[in-house]
Design goal:
Thrombin, subunit H; about 375 residues
């Protein structure tokens, strides 16, 4: 009898093969998943930051104060720039056309009536304005009558001698005058009271305000024109009285007046001629707005050439002391330190040297008396 074979052997083999294939596929699938699948990057976005708090609102009062300060600074800078530019232009032609210098005249620096003269002189007399007395028109306010300094005060006289001995006296009694249309010179005839030419103050601020300064004064001051006359043609009267608004500077003196000297007597002229003053660094500082700076007074020596027109009451003193534009209104003094004239104009000869002219002290004295300004008069002749 034949032996029977087990019936399940083939199925077992088939099952094993099928299981192996399944395991192989499972391994390949797991390997692909672990090593070959694309990597997916997941980005988690953080929540947005909260908005910043709104800036604090500025204090309206602080803003207004700052704007006001900035506007004032801009105006001050503009004033200084205008002043520097106009003063530099003035140096080229010796004509100053500055506006209110650095606000020295205060908020009312602009003239009340543009182009109006400081005051209206009375019409000249029949003698061709030879006598300045009747033509004097004081300012609205009555001009003060300054008391003369005590006799023998150090700055009111000088011993007869060399011209160099007069320098300290002239430094303390001569001042630079600034207006909107010109620079010139003035000198003290009484404490706080100066005399100059009317044509020097024609461009005054507010019609009657000028700026006055010197090394001895220490700082610039406002001067008020309290009387004026003439200022037209050479040979006529040409005077103006200036009163310092802030009082008498302690280091200044006064010049006494004396009769016109004879021909060939020595004289000294003091003033601020533009051609010389522009080289002074202190004048440059003044032009830049430093009102504690002032140029040195310029002194020149000469002789009396002639005293003309004595019979008209307004003598013209021709002399050889060198003067030029800017000397107008400055003193012409004798060797005793007394003003014998006020330098007013210069002539230029076609050939040779021109000459300077001063209005004589006797005509000046008449004007001061008519203006109510006291002054010293020394009638004795100077021995030098």
């Amino acid at each position: 009898m034949a032996e029977d074979k087990p019936q399940g052997g083939g199925l077992r083999v088939a099952g094993l093969v099928a299981g192996g294939v399944l395991l192989l596929l499972l391994g390949l699938t797991l390997g692909w998943y672990l090593f070959y699948r694309p990597l997916v990057s997941v980005t988690v976005q953080a929540p947005p930051a909260p908005p910043p708090p709104p800036p604090a609102k500025p204090d309206p009062a602080a803003v207004a104060a700052l704007e006001k300060a900035l506007e004032a600074q801009r105006k001050n800078n503009k004033d200084i720039e205008d002043q520097i530019a106009k003063l530099r232009d003035a140096l080229a032609g010796n004509v100053c056309t500055i506006t209110d210098p650095g606000g020295l005249l205060g908020p009312g620096g602009a003239p009340k009536t543009p182009g109006a003269p400081p005051m209206t002189p009375a019409p000249p007399g029949k003698s061709g304005d030879a006598n300045p007395g009747p033509a004097v028109v004081p300012a609205a306010a009555t001009p003060p009558v300054a008391a003369p300094p005590p006799p023998g005060a150090p700055t009111t006289t000088a011993p007869a001698g060399r011209a160099a001995d007069l320098a300290p006296l002239l430094e303390s009694t001569t001042a630079l005058v600034l207006s909107q249309r010109g620079t010139g010179t003035a000198f003290f005839v009484a404490p706080g009271i100066l005399i100059t030419n009317r044509h020097v103050i024609v461009g005054a601020w507010q019609g009657d305000k000028v700026v006055v300064t010197s090394r001895k004064m220490g700082k610039a001051q406002v001067g008020q024109v309290i009387a004026a006359v003439g200022g037209g043609n050479p040979g006529g009267s040409d005077f103006a009285v200036i009163r310092l608004v802030d009082g008498v500077p302690p280091s200044t003196g006064v010049l006494p007046l004396a009769p016109e000297p004879a021909a060939l007597k020595e004289v000294v002229a003091a003033g601020y001629p533009g051609a010389v003053v522009q080289n002074d660094r202190n004048f440059d500082a003044l032009a830049r707005g430093d009102f504690g700076a002032a140029p040195e007074v310029v002194l020149t020596r000469g002789e009396i050439s002639a005293v003309q027109n004595r019979d008209r009451g307004l003598p013209s003193v021709a002399h050889t002391a060198a003067i030029s534009s800017g000397n107008s209104g400055g003193p012409l003094v004798d060797m005793c330190g007394r003003a014998v004239g006020i330098n007013t104009f210069v002539t230029q000869a076609a050939a040779g040297q021109g000459g300077g002219f001063a209005i004589g002290s006797s005509g000046l004295a008449q004007f001061l008396k008519a203006s109510g300004v006291s002054f010293q008069w020394q009638d004795t002749a100077c021995p030098k």
